[in-house]
Design a protein that fits this description.
By secondary structure, this protein is α/β, with parallel strands linked by helices. It is 31% helix and 26% strand. It binds adenosine-5'-monophosphate-propyl ester.
Length: 644
């Protein structure tokens, strides 16, 4: 807390340290101040109810609405200001919606969803490309108290079916097609296939027809959005005031098991956390333009394409297309044209740009841009150096997860400007009591330079996941460990903290991999490959890759080893297996290679030695192999990968 009797310390970092400390030791007062950043229909009566750890209930007793805060409350002051700027270099469309227009569109979508039977608490699954209707649908859901569940458009039928079965949506909103690099990617056949595969059948499918691909309509089930939209011209749909703890959405993410987890988010805590993050971390102001290059199918898209910029009264730029098409200047031309002040992307995108003409970055006036935030995967030093020099703007790394919804580690320049350190996303963000624990002993590691599992002592701050959708036990068992008197959330990342409190993230402790910033579960890929009739056993590991950060590598033991004896047969089989993954999970999950081996390295008790396989693939020492049953299995992998 501010010390009245001593003048403010001039020690660099002291102001932020106090801010962070206060967020933990004077938690309720701290968050009660942040809660004033949003509108409440009824003010909360309790800031944090942590009487049933690890379940935290934020702003209890308060009622509010995310859509009201993101749209309606700005109408009086900024109705004619840009709210959503849609740019597609795939379809050559560019369209700006003011806050008033966004308000009208969201209500037409909300009225349509209501006409199709959606009521408060229902789930609406979105399987959509990056088009304005996706934003309208998300906002329409929260407006009427329904939960959206966005499934990334790059996922295919099996991934989609498992999410349909878990979310059990009343309605699915989709579109005829997406487009990538000018190539039309039809969505409807994948959706139809997924609904066939799923046990749960949605009552209705609402189709946005972009005119990119023809598709078949299922009579009685499929509805045309253009027709409904016409019918609801001028319709008003009031915001449903919901409890702060009412879930706003679920978003699926991968973990150790093959079954994706539905991360469930609340309403009031999320709104407060995002509004506060815009002030203290991203330094975005009302009336400015925010550009996040993510996809609405990922958490960054939820928090920083849709909600945080709109909650702040900013214009948000939604971009459909590649960073390099028509050329590598496209993003920077948008920064200039729309006077973007804050930009958010991923290291992978920067590495792609790095391969293009560097002049593309200096062709445009970037003077409005205050900083480029990068997240989602480790930011390597050469990439950070290159982009920082090319743009001449501060680059700010930030580390977080689908589960948390907003940054855990970064530099909070809005509180006190501080230097970045290469390779580190920064310090613990206010609200997060970040700790490191020894994986084996479970002891907290206090010293600098010790490697441990990055953990957060409960309660998690506002905005983080409430639970796993319909599976409280899975939430507790997956993420939480009890240590006498307290509960600790595991991020499943390794980390080190230096003497200045900066953290360095060293990769996942579980079977999650990060391919081009996309979080994937190796178990899901293994399950998919196993469905190929020739496969007896399979192991998928993440292997370091210069462009994508990591790629998936698959090692398969065939039922009949003779099928891959000839190189041409092996190649054909490899192609077939990649196709299985493409069709079931989507090309995003396709392994870079599928290699055939006689056996997989396992412990004597039959546990797959994934870390050893990964180490060998990366040319590192495989570590302690005393428990291995048959070392030759590992040598075979090493020999397969050895350059010839
Ligand atoms: O392993 C960490 C890595 O991405 C994981 C979370 O991915 P996702 O749920 O898709 O959420 C991304 C939100 C930005 C983490 O467990 N990760 C994320 N950001 C960083 C990172 N690794 C290193 N540095 C980062 N800045």
């Amino acid at each position: 807390m501010a010390n009245e009797t001593h003048p403010q310390s001039a020690t660099p970092g002291a102001a932020y340290a106090r801010f962070h400390q206060r967020s933990l030791t004077d938690r309720d007062a701290f968050w009660s101040e942040q809660a004033a950043l949003i509108d409440w229909h009824t003010p909360p009566t309790q800031v944090c109810d942590y009487s049933n750890p690890p379940f935290a209930r934020w702003f209890v007793g308060g009622t509010t609405n995310l859509c009201h805060n993101a749209v309606d409350r700005h109408l009086a002051t900024r109705g004619d200001q840009a709210a959503l700027i849609f740019v597609s270099t795939e379809t050559n469309q560019e369209r700006t919606y003011t806050y008033s227009q966004l308000h009208a569109e969201v209500q037409r979508m909300a009225a349509t969803l209501q006409s199709l039977g959606v009521v408060k608490g229902d789930r609406v699954l979105l399987y959509m490309p990056m088009i304005p209707e996706a934003a309208f649908a998300m906002l329409a859901c929260v407006r009427i108290g329904a939960l959206h569940s966005v499934v990334f458009g790059g996922f295919a039928s099996v991934s989609l079916a498992s999410r349909i079965d878990d979310a059990q949506p009343t309605v699915i909103v989709s579109a005829d097609a997406g487009s990538r690099s000018g190539k039309v990617l039809p969505y409807k056949p994948l959706l139809d296939e997924a609904i066939l595969l799923a046990a749960h059948k949605p009552a209705k499918v609402l189709m946005v027809d972009r005119g990119l691909a023809t598709f078949t309509r299922v009579a009685g089930r499929d509805e045309d959005y253009a027709t409904w939209r016409e019918q609801h011209a001028g319709t008003t749909v009031p915001c449903e005031w919901v409890e702060s703890t009412h879930p706003s959405y679920t978003l699926y993410t991968s973990g150790t098991t093959g079954k994706p987890k539905g991360v469930q988010r609340d309403t009031g805590g999320y709104a407060v956390a995002l509004a506060a993050s815009m002030r203290h971390i991203f330094c975005g102001n009302p009336g400015e333009t925010y550009f996040s290059t993510s996809d609405i199918g990922w958490v960054v898209g939820h928090s920083y394409i849709i909600y945080a910029p709109l909650l702040t009264g900013m214009a948000t730029l939604m971009y459909e297309g590649l960073p390099t098409r028509p050329d590598a200047a496209i993003w920077w031309s948008l920064v200039e044209k729309y006077k973007v002040t804050v930009m958010f992307s991923a290291p992978t995108a920067v590495r792609v740009l790095k391969k293009s003409d560097p002049a593309a970055l200096s062709r445009h006036d970037l003077s409005t841009l205050r900083a480029l935030f990068l997240a989602g995967e480790p930011l390597d030093e050469p990439t950070a150096q290159w982009i920082s020099q090319s743009l001449g703007r501060p680059i700010i790394d930030n580390y977080w997860q689908t589960e948390t919804g907003w940054p855990i580690l970064t530099i909070c320049n809005g509180v006190e400007p501080a230097p970045s350190k290469f390779g580190s996303p920064g310090k613990a963000v206010y609200g997060y009591d970040v700790k490191l624990f020894d994986e084996n002993t479970g002891e907290e590691l206090h010293g600098a330079g010790q490697k441990g599992v990055v953990a957060i002592e409960g309660p998690l701050p506002p905005g983080c996941m409430q639970t796993v959708w319909r599976d409280d036990a899975r939430f507790v068992n997956t993420y939480w460990k009890s240590i006498p008197g307290r509960m600790v959330y595991s991020t499943f990342d390794w980390g080190i903290r230096d003497e200045d409190g900066y953290y360095f993230i060293l990769g996942r402790t579980d079977d999650v991999i990060n391919v081009a910033g996309h979080r994937l579960g190796t178990r899901e890929i293994e399950e998919s490959l196993s469905s190929h009739a020739a496969v007896a056993e399979v192991a998928v590991v993440g292997v370091a890759d210069a462009l994508k950060g990591q790629v998936a590598m698959a090692f398969v033991v065939l039922r009949d080893a003779s099928r891959a004896e000839k190189p041409e047969d092996a190649l054909k089989l490899e192609g077939e297996m990649m196709k299985v993954v493409d069709e079931q999970l989507g090309a995003v999950a396709r392994p870079a290679r599928v290699r055939f081996v006689a056996a997989l390295p396992k412990t004597r008790s039959g546990k797959l030695l994934r870390r050893a396989i990964q180490a060998v693939c990366e040319g590192r020492d495989a570590g302690d192999l005393t428990t291995i049953e048959d070392p030759s299995a590992l040598y075979q992998i090493r020999d397969l990968l050895a350059p010839r």
